Amino acid sequence: MGDEFYGVIKLITGEEIFATISVDENNGNPVVLVNSPVIMKVLTHGVGQYVKIKPWLELPDEDMYLIDYSRIITMTEVKDKQMIHFYTRYLNDDEVDIELDGKVTINSEMGFISTVEDARKNLEKIFNIPFNNKES
Question: Which residues of 10-31 are buried (b: 16+ CB within 10 A; e: fewer)?
Fold first, then answer.
């Protein structure tokens, strides 16, 4: 079995997967062993860029998969420390969207400062304050 490295594989199906990869020559019929493969997509939002990471296969409980060499268009080693950090962070804390530009990732807990009912009461109170417009 060859050395393990972080890499991206482009399959003949068009899928691009990021994983820890090793190549086994297997007596002249090479196979690629991928560990914890994921799909990474860079999304651009009005406030920055984010990396969306999801598992390559949604249902299986396995972490290791064999891919026949003939099913691969290209494969490359990834040395970008930020991408490796995103990948390892995802593996340690599932369901993470990661920011590329250092900004805080928006999540469902941000911005909630009151309940809907409290917000409604406060807005009604503000709306009902008499406005004294002095015209000269």
Answer: eeeeeeebbbbbbbeeeeeeee
88-136 residue pLDDT tens: 888 887 555 555 555 555 556 556 566 788 888 888 888 887 666 555 4
Question: In this structure, are residues 20 and 3 in contact, taking their beta carbons and an 8 Å threshold?
Answer: no
Instruction: Tell me which of 3.40.1790.10, 3.30.420.40, 2.30.30.100, 2.40.40.20 is the CATH number of domain 5-105.
Output: 2.30.30.100
Residue 79 is predicted with a pLDDT of: 93
Instruction: Give the up-direction half-sphere exposure of residue 111: CA atoms within 13 A in the CB hemisphere.
Output: 6
> Which pLDDT value is given to residue 77?
94
The ranges assigned to domains in the chain are 5-105
Residue with tokens 């009902």: 128
